[in-house]
Amino acid sequence: MRNFNETTITDAVLERLAGARDARIKQVSAALVRHLHAFVREVRPTQQEWEYGIDFLTRTGQMCDDKRQEFILLSDTLGVSMLVDAINHPVPEGATETTVLGPFFVQAAPERANGDDISGPMKGDPLLVTGSVSSADGAPLAGAVVDVWHSDDDGYYDVQRLEQIGDLAMRARFHTDGDGRFHFWSIKPAAYPIPNDGPVGDMLAAQGRHPWRPAHVHFMISAPGFERLVTHVFVAGDQYLDSDVVFGVKDSLIRDFARCPPGRAPDGRMVAQGYFHLNYDFGLKRLAARANRV
Fold first, then answer.
1. For the chain, which residues make up each domain, given as ranges?
2. 197-208 pLDDT per residue, tens
3. What's the CATH code, domain 71-284?
4. What is the pTM of this model?
5. Residues 6+ apart with CB under 8 A from 129
6. Alpha carbons 292 and 259: distance in angstroms, whole number
């Protein structure tokens, strides 16, 4: 087959996919071709515009390294990350809602003990975080793994400032106690712009959008027999709650970071200055039972 035109090219490409051995690959490839061709027919790009699109994707890849993932930013800012999350994580009553992982998660977070201060050399308003982990029906989960990470009060993550601070900070891995509880100290995070000095920033500017995320603390929580929970807790009253650049805010994930006076904190520590306190109780969704295989 040859001599394809605007109306025949799509069917020709789909026909070439008939030999795909994996049914899922065939399904995904065919859907990609149909929707991509439909997009091109709708917007009718000039050759110059199409070349710019190829260049945009090339520059997006070139911005990726071990500290920055520009394609995750692209997915996030186009709402795709949250769409994939919504498809894959329906939440039963009692379970905490999910949101995006974000580009600043680090696998090798330091293990810390409950009550530790994870702020490292970072300066800011002290923050006490207390919480619990339970099943969706309320049973406490002892020994659950709780990864946390957040920005400093200028809106930067540790991995963006490693040359200045020398080591990871404002991130750690905790384990819940026998009652399913955990707590730690850090500093209060701030709203921040996603990295916008690359292709994604150019896209946002062209679309008339700001690059800001509301202040939040990230949590990733896992326990045997339960789905891993990836979520944030957002600071109530933040100016960007209704315009989060990655569409990650959900009402159930907003909490007051309560301002507290000096004195004895809820964890028993004596604090000489005012501080903030966040408390959040997390519910995990049980893993679906797998069908028995013959």
1. 9-65, 71-284
2. 999 999 999 999
3. 2.60.130.10
4. 0.90
5. 148, 183, 184, 185, 186, 217, 277, 278, 279, 280
6. 52
